[in-house]
Write a structure and sequence with these properties.
Blueprint lengths: L3 H23 L3 H22 L5 H11 L2 H19 L3 H4 L3 H29 L6 H11 L4 H8 L6 H30 L8 H31 L4 H22 L3 H19 L3 H28 L6 H4 L2 H25 L9 H7 L5 H8 L7 H30 L2
Helix pairs in contact: 1-2, 1-13, 2-13, 4-11, 4-12, 4-13, 4-17, 6-7, 6-9, 6-15, 7-9, 7-18, 8-9, 9-10, 9-12, 10-11, 10-12, 11-12, 11-13, 15-16, 15-18, 16-18, 17-18
Protein name: Sodium:proton antiporter
Subcellular location: Cell membrane
Membrane topology: Multi-pass membrane protein
Length: 415
């Protein structure tokens, strides 16, 4: 059994070594390169186990990975920092011009995708002779529908798109993540019969309002307090420390209050990133503060994608390569198309969208570690194995296939 320090050391050494190898020899985008190398390492361990069964490398590495509570690591650790760092660099004045597009895709789009994926996945399970209750199919729809802000923001660093389209993708990925977690919480409560007060439509609506609106209010209040504190001093080390306290304290408080921590992080990050440089942060503090959060974002991003690649070692191979999880890739793509096309079609009467918006938003709807973490948070029920396998295949497909081919699609469709 490794100590927490030893476990973190192993992950950092692996991440640094793989990142260097990718940068020096392979040349893929950092996140995708780490994911592929993690997958390759997993496959090599599986093959080594077959060739040298007496070594038991697979089992030993699997035990180490099981010590990494992926769900808690992502949802209760990395997510707060990653969302705040992402929101910190978004220009709110420009994003406000795309508010209706971003808002509709982050709410109506996620709900529509959840319904389409849930129903189609349930029908596919029935055709495959698998007894998957509709409520659990909707749980899968809820956790796989939001795009992952880490994956989307990382891809946009390597793929240039028009500013309005970039804002649509960035804003949607930041906000639909918080909305998706709320919908997942409601769907899981209904499926597991846990209640959480969400026994019907009114209860679910009440829970949604408490989590989403409460999270936004908490993020604004905490962000404003931190902004005022930064405005009264000029000391970059203290102001960076305040931003750290803001992220960790607000996210922990949101969990205690039952509000959405992800939404609170996005709102707080937008407030600090936009009000701070204007009248609270000196040029020196801005360089250190934004540089610090950029570095945090890059390091956690790298560790997260390596973990996704290695996570295949703790999944059941017989379920992972079955027909139903593989079919989820097509079902999720079709649902994403509907969830993007409907808001764009409705809003196109009042909002200008660049040509190619629908195919780029559809193909650029990448899923990542948050979906895997939500799937791992499902209680140990019979349905968990098939949901986790489908989630993992969709995530890997979107990150590798869609992520690497998005640049070519943008070049062909966007003008």
């Amino acid at each position: 059994m490794l100590s927490p320090f030893e476990l973190i050391s192993v992950l950092l050494v692996l991440t640094a070594g793989f990142a260097w190898t990718n940068h020096r020899l392979i040349g893929l985008p950092d996140s995708v390169g780490l994911l592929i190398m993690g997958l390759a390492a997993s496959v090599l361990l599986l093959l080594a186990e077959r060739v040298f069964p007496q070594v038991q490398l697979y089992e030993q590495v699997g035990v180490i990975l099981q010590q990494v509570d992926f769900q808690r690591t992502v949802l209760e650790g990395m997510l707060a920092f990653l969302l705040f760092a992402g929101a910190l660099h978004v220009d709110l004045s420009v994003l406000r011009e795309r508010a209706w597009a971003v808002g509709s895709m982050a709410t109506i789009g996620v709900l529509l995708s959840t319904l389409i994926v849930g129903l189609s996945f349930w029908c596919a399970a029935s055709l495959a002779g698998i007894n998957l209750p509709l409520s659990w199919a909707f749980v899968f729809g809820a956790l796989i529908s939001p795009t992952d802000p880490v994956a989307v923001l990382g891809t946009l660093k390597a793929v240039r798109v028009p500013k309005s389209l970039e804002l649509d993708m960035t804003g949607e990925s930041l906000f639909n993540d918080g909305v998706g977690v709320v919908i997942f919480t409601i769907a899981l409560a209904i499926a597991a019969g846990a209640g959480h007060g969400a026994t019907g439509f009114s209860g679910a609506a009440e829970l949604f309002a408490i989590e989403a609106i409460g999270g936004a209010l908490l993020g604004f209040a905490a962000g404003y307090i931190a902004y005022r504190a930064m405005k009264q001093i000029d000391n970059f080390s203290v102001e960076v420390l305040i931003s750290l306290g803001l992220v960790m304290g607000t996210y922990a408080l949101a969990a205690r209050l039952g509000t959405s921590g992800p939404i609170a992080m996005v709102v707080a990050g937008l407030l600090i990133g936009n009000r701070g440089p204007r009248d609270a942060l000196s040029d020196l503090t801005q360089r250190y503060l934004f540089g610090f959060w950029t570095l945090v974002d890059e390091i956690l991003n790298a560790i997260l994608f390596l973990l996704i690649g290695l996570e295949v070692l703790v999944l059941r191979p017989d379920v992972l390569f079955a027909w139903l999880p593989a079919s989820a890739i097509l079902l999720v793509l079709l649902a994403r198309l509907a969830a993007v096309a409907l808001p764009v079609w409705i809003l196109s009467r009042w909002t200008v969208f660049v040509p190619g918006t629908i195919p780029v938003l559809t193909w650029g709807g990448l899923r990542g570690g948050i979906s895997v973490a939500l799937a791992l948070s499902i209680p140990e029920v019979e349905e968990k194995a098939i949901i986790l396998a489908a989630t993992y295949l969709v995530v890997v497909f979107t990150l590798i296939v869609q992520g690497l081919s998005l640049r070519r699609l943008v070049q062909r469709t966007v003008r």
